[in-house]
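ok so for the tutorial part 2 we go from a plain amino acid sequence to predicted structure tokens. step 1 is just haveing the sequence, like this:
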Amino acid sequence: MAENNTILQPGASIKPKVSEDDVKEILSEVYGLKCMSIKELNGYDDNNYYVKVDETCNNNYIDRVNEDGYTLKVINSLESTNPQFFEAQDELLIHLDKKGVRCPKPVQNKNGRYYIIKDFSSGRHLVRLLEFITGSILHQVPSSMDLFYQVGQYVAKLDEALKDFHHPAYDTHKSLWMMESVPQLTQFLFAITDDSRKKLVESVIAEFSKKISPLWPQFEKRMIHGDFNEQNILVDQKDGKWFIKAILDFGDSHLACCLFELAITMAYMMIEGKSMDAGGYVLAGYTSIRKLSSQECNLLKVCIAGRLCQSLVIGAYSILQDPGNSYILTTAKAGWNLLEDLWAQPEEELLKHWTSFQDPTQ
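step 2 — the prediction. this is what the tokens look like for a chain of 362 residues:
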């Protein structure tokens, strides 16, 4: 089976260039919706727009206009070359909805399709529309150990809900953001100008290649979200307590081992909480649903470090391509300090510390 390789190459500029008129035209001509307001949302390689529309529509596939609005996504030119991957994403979202996991539902256009390919000034880009879910992004609310524990539980439940999902497009999908691609970060190290940081990343890549890459064929593969970070978790409040309402953005979903999903989540929550302890609460929540093997525990540190390197190196490269996109630097603000502290910690002591945490509400 041919491999759908959408791995970013040095020198590539892939982010879409889209005008408000483009957005209005797509909504009207493709989806039969009249745009009332547009707000551009954060996006790494893609363009995302929160749109509110008139309550009337000219689309036989929309039974009722979503009163909370929609998210229009214009996908980067690289991933737009693989529309089968987005067909797979749509099936995944529908699968999770049936399992009771709240996530944005894909919307069919006037032709009954879930996407179109459209020419823009920046090239050909795939366009999708998703129902918008109201709430607050985790990053927007006060950090708490209880929320980090909930995040751990939620990601474990999500992975359990996905264990019986399969789509052939995922079998061949490859991306630089997949953790198996950590060794390929060496191609982008020119974007790191600080020599000490570059050496730190090289050390992590070498350790990852030594410990993880040889074991990769042995790991059980299943669907994971792939980017469980503070910007993709939607929360709401009830009786003064924050709870997780939904999970957003499945653009990095792929086949991998559950260990990678946990490592990704712990990495971003430690950045968000500005503390190693946040990782311990995520781990406690996760293991209350799914237990880790001793092998997984021993590989946790290098996997977390590998994800931090991905975020920091790809971020440094991407800012060279798109200097005005401050969202790209979200991880860099605290990520380098965390990576330095994490990598300096002895593995056994770190694991002992993380496994000492329990449900903070008990």
